[in-house]
Amino acid sequence: MAELFEPEKLPPKSYRLRIEKLAEQITDPVQKLKFLNKALADYNREKDQQIEFVELPMGNGRRRTFFMVILGLAALAGGVGAFVAFSQGKIKLTIARHFQTRTEQMVYHPMADTTIETAAIEPLPEKGPEVHQPETAVFPEYPDTLVWMIEKTNESEYYSNRLRIFTSQTIENIPRNYQQIPLAATDPPQTPGMTDKVAGILFHASESDIYAFQPEMTQSIKEYSRLLIRYIREKKAYHYFIDRFGQVYRLVREDHAAFHAGNSIWTDTESIYLDLNHAFIGICFEGKDFKNNHRRKGRTNGNGNSTHIVPMDKSSISETQLRSGKELTDWLRVKYGIPQGNCVPHCLVSVNPYDLLIGHHLDLSYDFPFDMFGLSNKYQERIPAITEFGFSYNNYFTEIMKGRIWPGIALSEEDLKKRADERKMPLKEYRRLLNNQFKKLFEQQKGRNHTKIES
How far is CA 410 from CA 138, 204, 358, 381, in A? Predict the structure, then answer.
């Protein structure tokens, strides 16, 4: 901790040891760090504060416990700064009012470990008859930054944007090679063009079991990540994996396919992508957004407890993991010229091609921090599986999402209706036409596809 302060401002060693001892009582690592930084930074400012003191002798266990409670409340309270002073066997708890007035709502981001400040967040609109284009931030389609390698060893690569990739786990699979399908195609191309171009990035969550993210669980967390990486390598499931400490591992080499996308659909301004195992790079965050529904009563829709999974109150994916994911995404986009429109969570592309339903896999299906990644909010944009091929969703999907249906679904449905009206066709008939177009492309894709498709 010494590097955070000037040497001449450091308190005595005995003071620092006591501060650290008290900090052990605070379980939240973020609040613990805030408390330690504040305690040391305010060491020489006690006389300048208009403060109140609470003096508690430390010889009495009951009083000591009371002190710890006060300390915890002070350290955790929003808008209050706290530090501790020691003298002659007594502890003085100094509580000063925060000098900075907060004017914005404090929210706890479900995808982060830290509290962030932001404007009031509007809930996702429910599907209804009135459909309006939601406001979304505008981002450049292509990256305008420069990222380059500055160091390479047998174990890792280090880049100019702080990204470090551990490379010793890298394996081979099947060379990247997939069919290019023009966006306007209604039938399978007679002479399909093939390419090995990296067209996009698909974000995943491992949805695996996790240990509590606490210091005493460090070895268990590391061992579980090691076993998970071994499993993923055996399955050749992702190109990149980001563990719970934000460490980035290259697993399947970039010029090879990985079995990460399953049956998926995406489009951009030129092409339709049905083989995202080859077309997109898969990045997996170790963590989960859903948990088992222990209150499940059965499979009957409509009882509120029929789904086998439910969203977690807070994603286990941390701010550290997201920062590493942003660095990795920036580098890949610069390297391959990937447009921001083709950087998307798995949930939005995954489909059941036989029942013609979206949302077959739901990892990262809510609160992905698009703004942080320099991406437009894909939850608020049209879903290609619906607009291009007439896919739909069922009540089971609605129940799992707890009513938080992506606004892009309603926009997509409205597009379908407008196009059906323009063709003077009933919506059901027009949807069936699009379904048949997909089936033709999908059958051809299956015939040519030489990679494994996950269920």
Answer: 21, 24, 13, 9
